[in-house]
Specification:
Number of helices: 4
Strand content: under 5%
Structural class: mainly alpha
Order of helices and strands: HHHH
Distance between the termini: 11 Å
Number of strands: 0
Radius of gyration: 13 Å
Shape: elongated
Helix content: over 70%
Length: 67
């Protein structure tokens, strides 16, 4: 079951636009803070928070529809 969920999450991430995929990678795989992501990408920290929340909301809806 966990392996199936991992595959579904990977597919959801792979289906994201490049910029969103980069945000997810930086936050959850590279474990950077919102502040460090903002500095690296040259954007405001509040923009990082907003975009990440939007991406996670969309991924959540997508994953719910697959279960």
């Amino acid at each position: 079951r966990m392996q199936e969920r991992t595959v579904l999450v990977r597919r959801a991430i792979d289906g994201l636009p490049e910029g969103d995929r980069e945000l997810v990678r930086l936050r959850f795989f590279d474990e950077l803070t919102h502040e460090r992501i903002a500095a690296r990408l040259g954007i405001d920290e509040s923009t990082v928070r907003y975009r990440l929340q939007r991406v996670l909301d969309r991924m959540g809806l997508q994953l719910q529809s697959l279960e």
